[in-house]
Design brief:
This protein has 281 residues and is α+β, with helices and mostly antiparallel strands. It is 51% helix and 20% strand.
Amino acid sequence: MTHYLRYRRWYEALSLVLYAFITGLVNIAANTSELQHLHLKYLPWQPYAWEYSSAIVVLIAIPAIVVFDRQRPISWSTWRINIARHVIATIVFSAFKVGGTIALRRIAYAAEGEHYDPSIVPSGIGYDYLPNVRLYLVLLAGMYAYRFILSQLQGEAHTFAEPDVGPPVESVERPQRFVVRKLGKEFLIAAAEIEWLDAQGNYVNLQVRGRAYPLRSTMTAVQALLDPEKFVRVHRSHIVNLDYLVEIEPLESGDARLKLRDGTLVSCSRTYRDALRGRIL
């Protein structure tokens, strides 16, 4: 699990490409069989151009959907307005998919000395938009299901809340521990054991011994919870624990590269570089 989390983006990208490739082969086989059954003429390369042009466009669109959903997540407090925004996004997605698919097919046909005429494919609200809406919803549902499963396996961090009755067990303004809920159980991680933090969308990942525990918050809010003598902001999206910092490598750009005890490299922007040097010198 630790290895997967470290190279998570690569695994996710590879999984999507493999899924598109295998699904494309299945669809090509089905389409070829149907063309033969109807005795329609086609060139051997054409089913591949039809299927993978659409798959490539969808793969290109997925990162944009992920970023848009992170900025406009569907939650209990925002579902009304953000569902409306996602409805608008389906129109953009459909237009992009249709236009991008036609463009790639024209390129493929031109490479073979042929001309692609998009009018040979039926179009309209029922043929284009509605199937693309279903595809958008499937992609969105898959993203939420994947995030939920990952959060259960990885664990999600929470701060201690103010109790309804009695004094808090520790300071809620600057907690010494964070609660991690994982697979129906709760674990505690000491704030001092957090090696570094990085922001991703609506979450801040608490990096502890190679594991990332997402905390739903902003970087500024989390920084206020941490000991300022130990934790230093080094980037708009990164905070490091000075106890785990072992090396600072200046870069020609004015930025710096920080190395932690376990070999992890963290970017330090020039905006925060002088403040960091002032803390350790």
